[in-house]
Model the fold of this input.
Amino acid sequence: MQPSLSESIEALLAPIADREGYELVAVEIAGSTSTPVVRVFIDRDGGVDIDAIVDANEWISDALDEADPIDTTYTLEVSSPGVDRPLTKVEHFERFCGQNATIKTRPLDGRSSFKGTITSVEGDTVLLQTDEEIVRIPCSAVVKARLKGHVDFSQKGADE
Done:
């Protein structure tokens, strides 16, 4: 089977990202086929600030211009993975054990949507504690997965 456009772009950018000191978290293609949006999520130790985004935008644009994998005009968006970080690799699930996630899969025992806490990874299988049970999800069945970030907007400590 031929790789998707996002997989092809990820294969192109991953070694460059590594060389530049970044982790290529995910590549998503959105919008219409005539004017797609290419979303590239990057991270690095210490996080990603605006200067890192500007830097990465430059080498990503250069690599895409040189390889020319997209037949039409497109919009490039480069960003950090954010609080609702995409989980695209087994290593991501391992790194974020103990965190809450939402996982969409191909149908597994009549279900395709799961929410819970990543408890562990066994080989290529994610164990997710839902409200009802521990679900074993093969990574090969995952269509989309994201952390469920929690932002505390309370003012606790602000006046102390």
Q: What stands out?
A: The beta strands are 23-31, 36-43, 75-79, 100-108, 111-122, 125-129, 134-138, 142-147.
